[in-house]
């Protein structure tokens, strides 16, 4: 079977726990090697965050469960990379 | 004969299976070494996804069949690279 | 004599054979080491494709003949590189 | 447990201490290996500064405390990277 | 004395010989190691081409003579690099 | 204690001494390893210059004193990097 | 003392000597290791050229004298780098 190596998630989270604690908790999920979180937008009730998560054989269900336990929801899965390595996308003329 | 090393596809897929499972299934196709999938656009019924697939001697028919079994369709083949290595395109003044 | 190492072509082709088969056939031309094809535009009757072809001593006539046998025509030769290596163009203020 | 490796902060600070002394004091916080500070905007009373801080196992509380002792406040945590290495975010089509 | 290592030329040429043969002939000039030619613009009578030529001790007169023998003219010399190596220009605030 | 490794300064200077002599004098300040100066703007009385200064343990006071002796003033400190190495800032979505 | 390693000059020159001969003559100045010249603009009487000159311990007076002997004038010194190596400027938010 094929392994998940990178996933980019668009996440909505409450202000509490704050971004640092939130990200630390995701990075503690089994098989996660590294996580970057960037603040996209914030309003009074939620923060919109982009998470980029890498690992050698990520378990997405565990990542999603951890996000849910922290009060967050995955708004969309923006990118996923499976296989023996991560293919970087190349821009093509059709990207327009 | 010449081998297919990379192909970039513009794919329409239903919401189910979700992007992760969809991509994992493509990555399990024979000869596929790695796949990245990016969400381009989504509406109520379909997701528009860009797939970049690499392998040493890809069988496109098998990839296309797997996409079809998952309820997706290839809207267009945006890029294909054949040969001993992948030539990266260079921008030229005629690209406009 | 000097050798052709890379050529970028703006090609018009019918929908059949499709882009993958078309590109595979070009990659099978003698002395071609690698080909990338990108879809630029398509309408009901033709596809406009950018081909980037590399080899150690390319025979352009053979490439052009193969394109013609597949029903395609070279709309323009957008870039050509000859010599002991491929010089990458540098942007200059006059490009403007 | 997972370690904090990089954090990017949007900070408001008074004019005194000036940017150099302010940054030096942050760089003296335990576990901080390196800090860059850039001036974003300044008005009569405050400076808006972007701080990028790296270390092997950063203690954010200590960084935040040092900023507070210098009269500054963290306006937002713009980016955080945890884990075995720093994942650089890749742009995705959904970034808009 | 100092040696010419790279020159970028803005050239007007007739349609015949075509770009490939034209470029091959330039690449056959003594001391030329590599040439890239890009099509900038074409109208009914002429093609406007950017030539980038490299060599260890280029003889510009020989290059210019070859262009003239092929019916072309050098519209402008856009860039020249002399010396022990090629200095790449860095953008400066005054370029703007 | 932590060391200053790079500082970027927005400087106003008179026309005399000219940019080259001015920059040479800054580069002669103790602990300065390298300086680049770029002209941003000039009017009849002053030149606006961006100075980027690197060293292993820069003494900012000495740099500022040298600028003052040459008739210049530091308009703003635009960037400062302290620590064991120079952290390059990464763009974040909040920069926008 | 500190050494000049790179200088970028905005130069006005007559059409004669042409750009190639002009650049070659500058490259023959003592201590100049390499020169690139780019055409910025030309009108009936003068050419506006950007010169980038590198060397291990450049003598600017000799460069300027050579430009003057060739009928040119230095309109502005756009960049100068002194020291043990060339610091490349980093963009900062204050660059605007």
From TrEMBL, chains A, B, C, D, E, F, G:
Organism: Natronoarchaeum mannanilyticum
The organism's place on the tree of life at top rank: Archaea
Protein name as it appears in the record: DUF211 domain-containing protein
């Amino acid at each position: 079977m094929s392994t998940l190596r990178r996933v980019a998630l668009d996440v909505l989270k409450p202000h509490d726990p704050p971004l640092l604690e939130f990200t630390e908790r995701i990075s503690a999920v089994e098989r996660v090697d590294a996580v970057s979180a960037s603040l996209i937008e914030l309003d009074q009730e939620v923060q919109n965050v982009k998470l980029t998560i890498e690992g050698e054989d990520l378990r997405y269900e565990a990542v999603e469960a951890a996000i849910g336990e922290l009060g967050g929801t995955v708004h969309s899965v923006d990118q996923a990379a499976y296989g023996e390595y991560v293919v970087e996308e190349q821009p093509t003329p059709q990207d327009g």
